[in-house]
Automatic annotation (TrEMBL):
Keywords noted in UniProt: Membrane, Transmembrane, Transmembrane helix
Keyword ATP-binding: no
Transmembrane segments: 65-85, 91-110, 117-134, 146-166, 186-213, 219-240, 252-273, 285-304, 316-339, 351-372, 392-412
Name the record gives this protein: DUF4153 domain-containing protein
Source organism phylogeny: Bacteria, Pseudomonadati, Bacteroidota, Cytophagia, Cytophagales
Amino acid sequence: MKEEIFTYLNQPGQLEKLYRANKADFKRAFNTLYPELKGNASADFWNERLNYEAEGLTWGTRKELLFVIIASLAAGLIAKLPAILSISEDFFYPRNIGFIVFPGLSVYFAWKNKLSLGKTAFIIGTSLFGLVFINSLPEAENSDTLILSCIHLLVFLWLVFCFAFVGDRKINVEKRLNFLKYNGDLIVMASLILLAGAILTGITIGLFSLIGYDIQQFYTEYVVVFGLAAVPMAGTHLTRTNPQLVGKISPVIAKIFSPLVLVMLVIYLSAIIYSGKDPYNDREFLLMFNALLIGVMALIFFSVAETSATKSRMEVWVLFLLSIVTIIVNGIALSAILFRISEWGITPNRTAVLGGNVLILIHLLSVTGRLFRVLSRKSGINSLGKAIASYLPVYFIWAIIVTFIFPFIFGFK
């Protein structure tokens, strides 16, 4: 390895190929050789590249920290409103869970991106409209339109938050893909925070129980509730101020899970044939089938967003095959919904699922087509990002229809 490094020292392309072939051996060999090469511009560059030490954990400015603390406390107070105002938890949480998470994040990015007064007013106004609307819906047991509104309100608020992150209504592929990358990073960071919090909770409750104090109820009602409400904001702040924390983890997770999910899906579809279950006559199975579809679709889109400019041909093949299998899953779910509509008629749930599946199918076909063009070398890998980013407003419009219009179309049933 030392001889090859010395030979290719002034040939950047060859040296890069050598590094990528075996990074660990390359670094060891180069560090051994560097004292002899010190002063050479190429050698100095590679020394900085290989041995750069990232800065330690940073916490941002005092203003940022103060904002994060206030926003986290505000989220915790919103989560505790049922106890403070004696509101039914069954009424409050299904309707307002999104307002614990998204408004604070939206304001955070509106502030960080220095959005204009008009854009900030749009974010606040749409969020307040959603808040007033969802809490004005009549309380009715087993109301399908209420459940659908609550679920799609989360999508609506998430996409309003996307606007705050991107800061522009125009199609900006890079910023929208960065938003998807941020979501992946936040999931990783939030999972780590929750794991650490669970360990701390167990230790704390256990230690106090040893000295005769049962703090479980108090700890759960206050510390855990405020802690859970603070996780999205704390995780966001950590990922924005310390991108190195999870910047390399999310792409690795995407690379590992994409082929695993592909294998799982193929086996699962094969097992359905022998299981005797089918989504045509089993409503619960159909719901799980659609949840699987949404999860796999999200994995595909996050995988594309994580490293859209640096994917190997093998990774593109995995995503292409995963997209094909997901289209098959979507086709089965779609045919099952159409079958149930033809047999038992239109309902709010069937209409919402039908519309959502059609939109997802169109999006998947677009992404799969781009993946095929990349594999056939008719377009670049960056075209994948455009296929994903340009479609997000379609989901926003559908979320608006289901959240705000469905209750009136179906008479709040």
